[in-house]
């Protein structure tokens, strides 16, 4: 995904003089050719993430369409106040593109883990969040975000599904178990594991790479009384959205994702997937346990 981001951004800088790129050393080597060709629109502020967002806001105020890029914990967590003030408070938009996701660089320790990034963006108003599940989904999502004028967050990962799924982010049914069946919604790169987990169960599986704005109309059309939400970041991040969309009907909701407890082990991304129960086996245990624990009808 990172390579597709570099390729697409380099092309956008050449095609559209409104596009700008702000870096904080991360990926600077990959963008060196673009910086040579467009020195006024490719800026590297060094390891100063708050300045990264301050410059991004300033460029947006001049009428440019800036892309700000770094690792997720540096871009979102470390510079959150600047996102809130230098973008939102000033009423300007930008495109934030992260790498590292929740635990892609787990071997680098806690400084490089960021499962709460989407939750932080969710405290702001009107943001679009894209969580692609395959590298081939990245170019169209990035181009659409840059072509707009609002604020967008594109969350890239080393984890991926076997194939891309296009579309605008509306829920896409990949396995239909029929009317009234439990619905599992998978976001981004957890799709393949989710499909494997429920392969022999009567569960409908829908996919999205755009958790914000969440496709609530699609959710209402597909959901019966049981919904399972699988997200590759902090568990429960989209619970409020799903619950609000289904507030007028009885439903049960299981929200799966990265746990809140800190794992004081480095390991690999694959280890963390297993430890958080986001592999096929872990999801299978969680989903079957939830389905088997269906509530007893009233009066029995």
Write up this protein.
With 300 residues, the protein is an alpha/beta fold. The protein has 2 domains: 154 residues, 3-Layer(aba) Sandwich (Rossmann fold); 121 residues, Rossmann fold, CATH 3.40.50.920. 35% of the residues lie in helices and 19% in strands. The protein has a 6-stranded parallel β-sheet, with helices on both faces. Strands 7-9-8-10-11 form a 5-stranded mixed β-sheet, sandwiched between helices. Strand 8, helix 8 and strand 9 form a beta-alpha-beta unit. Helix 8 packs across helix 12. The longest helix is centred in the N-terminal third of the chain and has 14 residues. The N and C termini lie far apart (52 Å). The model has no long low-confidence stretch (mean pLDDT 96).
**How much of the polypeptide forms β-strand, as a percent range?**
15-25%
Number of domains in the coordinates?
A: 2
**Unreliable residue stretches:** none
List how many beta strands DSSP finds. Answer: 11
Question: Topology as H/E string?
Answer: HEHEHEHHEHEHEEEHEHEHEHH
CATH class group of the largest domain: Alpha Beta
- Cα radius of gyration in angstroms: 20 Å
Share of helix, binned: 25-40%
Sequence of strands across the biggest β-sheet: 2-1-3-4-6-5
* Envelope shape: globular
Overall mean confidence score, pLDDT = 96
Topology-level CATH name of the largest domain = Rossmann fold
How far do the termini sit from each other? 52 Å
Number of helices: 12
Query: What's the CATH H-level homologous superfamily of the largest domain?
Result: Thiamin diphosphate (ThDP)-binding fold, Pyr/PP domains
Class inferred from helices and paired strands? alpha/beta
CATH architecture of the largest domain: 3-Layer(aba) Sandwich
Largest sheet: 6 strands, parallel
GO molecular function, one term: magnesium ion binding
InterPro entries: PDH/Transketolase (IPR051157), THDP-binding (IPR029061), Transketo_C/PFOR_II (IPR009014), Transketolase-like_Pyr-bd (IPR005475)
Protein name: Transketolase
Domain Transketolase-like pyrimidine-binding: 1-164
